[in-house]
Amino acid sequence: MKGNMTKIGLTTNMLISHAEKNHGQTEVLSVDVKGDVEKSTWQKVGERARKIASALDKLGLKKGDRLGTISPNNKEHLELLYAISGFGGIAHTINPRLFPDEIVYIVNHAEDKVLFVDSSYIAILIGHRHLFETVEHIYLMGPKKDEFAANMNGFKFLNDLTDDGDKNYNWPELNENDAAVLCYTSGTTGNPKGVLYSHKSIVVHANLVSLPDNFNLSARDSLLLVTPMFHVNAWGVTYASAMVGSKLVLPGPNLDGKSVVSLINNENITMSFAIPTIWEEVLEQLDKTGEKLESLDRILSGGTAVPEWMIRQFKNDYSVHVIHAWGMTETSPLGTANTPLGAHANLPKKQKIEKMYNAGRPNWSVQIKIVDREGIELPRDGESEGDLLVKGPTVIERYLHDKQSSLDNDGWFKTGDIGKIDSEGYLEITDRSKDLIKSGGEWISSLELEEIVRGHDKIHDAAVIGVDHKKWNERPLVIAEAVKGTNPKEKEILDFFKNKIAKWQIPDAVVFVDELPLSSTGKPIKRDLRFEFKNYFEEKKNG
Ligand code: AMP
């Protein structure tokens, strides 16, 4: 027998309608490239989103069409996010830091019909526009400058679309299982892979992150969202903030320590979201100026391991609680978050802080387990180390256009991370089995770098590994075996990467060895290399 409650589905429209009606005067702020703050409210964001949605409808776009965005976090991007999924389309948030060829690949793979491009990223279009196979319209975001428009043949402005829109547009009824947002994540081999969120998974996830033992969000909060919307769906904060009716601050393209600190203090921010690289810059800035963070209660740091010293420094010097979280694009993204249990209340301060170091406990919608090589579950004893598997309603089932499910027969998704789980259910990420390096929150494929360096005629074999780095968390290091009789220099090997990959993906250094350690299948044993060279950059810096 079915339940007798209404069949109203969970859709993103519910969230923006709620924020518009019930938190209409709560501020949504947006910072532009010059650092000027534009003030808006949830009511105005909702109205503009409906106007854009109606204009997209009029353009003839259909349910399920993909519409790409290339933009930093700003008000227009937020409005587009709600407008696109609101009329039934799919908002494809594109990472502008990718190599242009990769952007072309994902736009074509997603079959985007429309692109919305912030004026700070126009360079991406030049020289590549003709390669977009399915794009029918390109709209520029940002203020309309007619002179500029006249020189940009064939581009239109988002503001024209908004002006043409109908502010009385009613959100259509949508199926909660329909797709709403598309985010690409890096593949270990070959091309990026598309993760397609449904309306339901987004709403369930927004509810989840708002819970007290996750981000503890409420209408009293003022949130600074540094994590870009094109990464991990911005931890679901664009939706959770509408759900709880908090103030939302979107920082635009300038994410340096100085800009972030001044936004926190000027806008009375209570919680902010970013990767450790940004938080390190924030601490450096505070150190330099002696400023404090009076309003800031907690920060979310994840995407890579958060250094223990950072957790201590925020707590001891600024009374800011660091919530260390683990998640993936494929898990919506929140998997685990580190918040204390009642049983920790009477622990001494030092022990309490030590409890904050790991990646935390799973939330109700994500089951986690660690398994050995045969797939047998390992005990939760804080000692056994194995592959991390996850399962739940906010976890991916298959990648975009894949025929095959990404789950095992029992519905578990293999994360490519290695970890331990302790008796209280806390997860510690100890390593990664996927061949990827994460530098400043962005992925670099070690396999791609190896393929390039092996193409150099003085290189016999090479492995590329991620090595600890204070600022970027990890940076790529090449361990190379030269062809006998040649004597390659580090610089010529590094130069060889130029124009083949994005500049920031080029390794920082090359170490030449006589022989690489090889496994029985003839592949370099990277685990050994990662262990041996773990502190390479730190030791080099210290001479
Ligand atoms: P992405 O989908 O780009 O967010 O990347 C997800 C991956 O980032 C995970 O599979 C981990 O390898 C890594 N990651 C995320 N959070 C953490 C964390 N707290 N500690 C260590 N690695 C993390």
TrEMBL record:
Record keywords, A-Z: Fatty acid metabolism, Ligase, Lipid metabolism
Domain spans labelled AMP-dependent synthetase/ligase: 19-400
GO MF: ligase activity
BP GO terms, sorted: fatty acid metabolic process
The AMP-binding enzyme C-terminal domain, residue ranges: 448-523
Top-level taxon in the UniProt lineage: Archaea
Gene3D superfamilies the UniProt entry points to: 3.30.300.30, N-terminal domain of ligase-like
UniProt key word Transferase: no
Family assignment from sequence similarity: Belongs to the ATP-dependent AMP-binding enzyme family.
NCBIfam families named among the record's database cross-references: PRK06187.1
Protein's name in the database: Long-chain fatty acid--CoA ligase
Species this protein is from: Marine Group III euryarchaeote CG-Epi1
